[in-house]
From TrEMBL, chain A:
<dbReference type="InterPro" id="IPR001851">
    <property type="entry name" value="ABC_transp_permease"/>
</dbReference>
<feature type="transmembrane region" description="Helical">
    <location>
        <begin position="310"/>
        <end position="330"/>
    </location>
</feature>
<feature type="transmembrane region" description="Helical">
    <location>
        <begin position="229"/>
        <end position="249"/>
    </location>
</feature>
<feature type="transmembrane region" description="Helical">
    <location>
        <begin position="28"/>
        <end position="45"/>
    </location>
</feature>
<feature type="transmembrane region" description="Helical">
    <location>
        <begin position="180"/>
        <end position="199"/>
    </location>
</feature>
<feature type="transmembrane region" description="Helical">
    <location>
        <begin position="261"/>
        <end position="278"/>
    </location>
</feature>
<feature type="transmembrane region" description="Helical">
    <location>
        <begin position="57"/>
        <end position="76"/>
    </location>
</feature>
<protein>
    <recommendedName>
        <fullName>Autoinducer 2 import system permease protein LsrC</fullName>
    </recommendedName>
</protein>
<dbReference type="Pfam" id="PF02653">
    <property type="entry name" value="BPD_transp_2"/>
</dbReference>
<keyword id="KW-1003">Cell membrane</keyword>
<keyword id="KW-0997">Cell inner membrane</keyword>
<keyword id="KW-1133">Transmembrane helix</keyword>
<feature type="transmembrane region" description="Helical">
    <location>
        <begin position="285"/>
        <end position="304"/>
    </location>
</feature>
<feature type="transmembrane region" description="Helical">
    <location>
        <begin position="111"/>
        <end position="132"/>
    </location>
</feature>
<keyword id="KW-0812">Transmembrane</keyword>
<keyword id="KW-0472">Membrane</keyword>
<keyword id="KW-0813">Transport</keyword>
Length: 346, 517
């Protein structure tokens, strides 16, 4: 990726400018990578940029990006939530069952409240275990991943939800839009902007970065560490719940555990988007761009008639590249800052 | 009948006398399990006064600091704020009350900006509760200007030197309008001019009415900065008096509870053949053209300011880092670059600077740590013999007079001085020909310090060549047969023992005089 060029900054810049450039460079380089990808694919197959093609990409990205926003919040606090894929599946199935039992009486709003509530309960469980029982996040959420998956299969019992049983308004939410813009990406963008603004501009938002950057220092600074970590999981769970309802709305037909394996794609999107897996660094904008990039690669490979096996390999390669770039940049920036301090002290 | 004695309170401020101490401990006690860390300790901190807290490692200084700063709650006695008993619910409550602690290694958020580090949790707000970044930066700049230092509030804390990190912590304390500044060994990792800068800042704060509690193992610093001293020994209060009433010798005697025969028991030895030869060693951008040799039975000190490249030279010699040019020979045999295995096989041993990070596996037991370097010698076939490992550890623990409960205890329960002994034991067990020690007594109390010095001297007497890196000038002057001084990555001077003085070493270290030898 092009982020490496960021270290060619002229020496006269202030350290602040330098660091901000590096972080913005991540988002810019994602946009650049996207642009290259889209241009190349369109050159080979002009249909790629057709109205329907673009709409599909945005629809496909929306749910992944929504989950990536929630995941970012958790990862920024130096934790991880592997249970999101299972939560999406559970919520999609249970909400489907719930509204199809009374498709006229239970509408879109009921479905949303119901689904978000289930997701929030799952997130609360994760959060309590991680923050108050002090069990490592990886283990807790790996456990809840399987527990929730099992629960989903138990409830589904081999059945599936069919689109015809759902209220039409719900399917409308998942596939239509206003003035040609589908609802799904609008929802995602609104959530992203709200969370991004909150994280940057509110003291409690900065707490998440503080916790991920140094949990010990956060405790000493009087940051309510456990409460914030709990909030991050609660929020990630609630967003997974929202994602589950949207999944149901988009696809209509849902079997048990439809989003199996998604947790890793979400984590990949977040890391590719520049959120440090060790916490403290990153933005939700980057994470959403990461999700968009991964989805676009998937669509591009289909258009380019590349075997879909390659998609996973490419995602993996991108992940490695992102982590390598992060590492190299971190080392370089640290060295540069050190040099600056030395010069300053002299 | 009235008892005239009861009419007057024995304590407390009478009208017209001095105000009560800002922060005080009265007969405080604290136990952890069976260990009584503090017993009936009293201490009073007054506004505008710097108060030293002295005592060996394990004397209870850290527990006292944590009690004052709300981390621990005393089991007995009480904490008094402005003369009134107070119970801090946690560190946040103590900070709220104006008590700020500067630790030896400050805990900052490396990824966040300096300004955010200062104002975390108390950011200036704009409308709708948003953070007012411009105001935050302006206030941070103002704080630094007041302290007389230039740190860009917008840069991330990552990469700041420890001295600058401490200044950020002080700025944080000031922004909270702290009235009590507790400094836990702030100078241990600082170079000479950084200490001077810190002292200027602290003196200004003291004059502005701050109460300062200062902890240091360096007696000269205590005498320079403080007006009053409290001495702890084994968790108990030993003395508390104006510093003018004491001499450094008195202070040491009260801390240790006995006379120290001598702190630097260097025996004279006749240097033997050359054990370590370093020829024009260069690592680009770090150090250049470093040449010297160390003979058997000799202690050579590598002095210089922090950042002069001393530890980096040691790491390169031992093969932790690669070098770009030059040679290293041990006993006449050349070492390949970048191979600690080859260095160890040739008889080199390195006791690193940071024992917690580099010297020890903190969660492992004493015997396991000692056993780490010599797995071969405790092996029976492919299997490590627990019995052999234990025997070896017991042997070395006895030789170094290690204080421990059980060899199976994790090393993180030991005091700093005893941890350092474990690191030494671990390397001495490899039977080295050349021993490199990096800051062997940093953060170690005076009693153990003397023991480490005696041990080094004894090892030299047995024919081991010792290269000692140290920022502690009296230690350098007291222990070394020769002093090599580094300045900005180059050897600036080589000074024999007879001519080594504080002035000659410091002038070479600061680059004022490149030809001291």
């Amino acid at each position: 990726m092009t982020a490496v060029t960021a270290d060619a900054t002229p020496g006269g810049r202030s350290a602040r400018g330098l660091v901000e450039l590096v972080f913005r460079a991540r988002e810019l380089s994602l946009v650049a990578a996207l642009a290259v990808l889209v241009l190349v694919t369109t050159a080979v197959n002009p249909n790629f940029l057709s109205g329907q093609g673009v709409k599909d990409i945005f629809l496909n990205t929306s749910i992944l990006a929504l989950l990536a926003v929630g995941q970012s919040l958790v990862v920024i606090t130096r934790n991880i939530d592997l249970s999101v894929g299972s939560v999406v599946g559970l919520v999609a199935f249970c909400t489907g069952k719930f509204v199809s039992a009374d498709p006229t009486g239970r509408g879109v709003l009921t479905a949303l409240v119901f689904g978000v509530a289930i997701g929030a309960v799952c997130g609360l469980l994760n959060g309590l275990l991680v923050s108050f029982c002090r069990v490592p996040a990886l283990v807790v959420t790996l456990g809840t991943l399987y527990v929730i998956q099992g629960l989903d299969h138990y409830i589904a019992h081999g059945q599936q939800i069919n689109a015809v049983d759902l209220p039409p308004a719900l399917l409308h939410l998942g596939n239509e839009g206003v003035l040609g813009v589908p609802y799904l990406p609008v929802i995602t963008v609104v959530v992203m902007l709200a969370v991004g603004y909150y994280l940057r501009s509110y003291p409690s938002g900065r707490d998440f970065y503080a916790i991920g950057s140094s949990p010990e220092a956060a405790r000493l600074a009087g940051v309510p560490v456990r409460r914030r970590v709990l909030a991050a999981y609660l929020f990630s769970g609630a967003l997974a719940g929202l994602g589950g309802v949207l999944w149901l709305a988009r696809f209509g037909t849902v079997v048990a555990d439809p989003a199996r394996g998604w947790e890793l794609i979400v984590v990949s999107a977040v890391v590719v988007g520049g959120v440090a897996i060790v916490g403290g660094v990153g933005t939700v904008y980057g994470a959403v761009l990461g999700a968009l990039l991964l989805t676009t690669i998937g669509s591009a490979l289909v258009v380019l008639k590349v075997n879909s096996f390659w998609q996973q390999a490419l995602t993996g390669a991108l992940l490695l590249l992102a982590i390598t770039v992060d590492r190299v940049l971190a080392v370089r920036v640290t060295r540069l800052l050190r040099k600056r301090s030395v010069r300053h002290g002299a | 009948m009235r008892d005239p004695g009861e009419a007057e309170a024995p304590r407390g401020p009478a009208p017209g006398t001095a105000p009560p101490p800002v922060l005080a401990l009265r007969k405080a006690g604290k136990s952890f399990g069976a260990v009584r860390a503090l017993r009936e300790v009293s201490l009073e901190l007054f506004a505008g006064e710097a108060h030293a807290l002295a005592g060996e490692n394990g004397a209870g200084k850290s527990t006292l600091v944590k009690t004052l700063s709300g981390v621990h709650r005393p089991d007995e006695g009480e904490v008094l704020l402005d003369g009134a008993p107070v119970e801090f619910g946690g560190p946040a409550a103590a900070q709220e009350a104006g008590v700020a602690v500067i630790y030896q290694e400050p805990t900052l958020f490396p990824d966040l900006s300096v300004a955010e580090n200062i104002f975390m949790g108390r950011q200036p707000r704009a409308r709708f509760g948003r953070i007012d970044r411009r105001a935050m930066h302006a206030e941070a700049t103002e704080l630094f200007t007041g302290l007389g230092v230039a740190i860009d509030p917008g840069r991330p804390a990552r990469g700041l030197s420890i001295a600058d990190q401490q200044l950020v912590e002080i700025a944080k304390a000031l922004s909270r309008r702290a009235r009590v500044l507790i400094m836990d060994e702030p100078t241990a990792a600082l170079s000479g001019n950084e200490v001077a800068r810190l002292f200027n800042v602290v003196k200004t704060l003291r004059e502005q009415g701050c109460a300062v509690l200062f902890i240091s193992h360096r007696l000269d610093e205590i005498f320079e900065l403080c007006q009053r001293v409290t001495i702890l020994r084994d968790g108990a209060w030993v003395a508390g008096e104006p510093i003018s009433a004491l001499t450094p010798d008195d202070l040491v005697r009260r801390m240790v509870g006995r006379d120290l025969d001598t702190l630097y028991p260097k025996q004279d030895t006749l240097p033997g053949e050359v054990a370590l030869t370093v020829g024009r060693l260069t690592r680009e951008g770090v150090f250049t053209d470093v040449s010297f040799e160390v003979r058997r039975g000799e202690i050579v000190a590598l002095a210089g300011l922090v950042g002069a490249g001393r530890s980096e030279v040691a790491r390169a010699i031992f093969g932790v880092d690669r070098w770009d040019a030059g040679t290293v020979e041990v006993g006449g045999r050349r070492l390949p670059p970048g191979s600690p295995t080859a260095a160890m096989a040739a008889g080199l041993a390195l006791v690193p600077e940071d024992r917690r990070q580099q010297g020890l596996v903190m969660d492992l037991s004493i015997e396991r740590n000692i056993g780490l370097t010599g797995l071969k010698s405790v092996r029976r076939g492919p299997v490590i013999s627990r019995a052999a490992e234990r025997d070896r550890a017991r042997d070395w623990a006895a030789r170094l007079q290690l204080k421990f409960t059980r060899l199976g205890d994790a090393v993180n329960v030991l005091s700093g001085g005893n941890q350092q002994k474990v690191v030494l034991a671990k390397w001495l067990a490899t039977d080295p020909a050349v021993l490199i020690v990096d800051e062997p007594t940093r953060g170690i109390d005076i009693g153990t310090k003397a023991e480490v010095h005696r041990l080094l001297s004894e090892l030299a007497g047995r024919g081991i060549a010792i290269l000692m890196i140290s920022s502690d000038l009296p230690e350098v002057l007291g222990m070394a047969d020769r002093v090599l001084v580094m300045h900005e990555g180059r050897l600036a001077a080589e000074i024999p023992r007879e001519r080594a003085t504080e002035e000659s070493v410091m002038s070479a270290a600061t680059g004022r005089d490149g030809a001291a030898a």
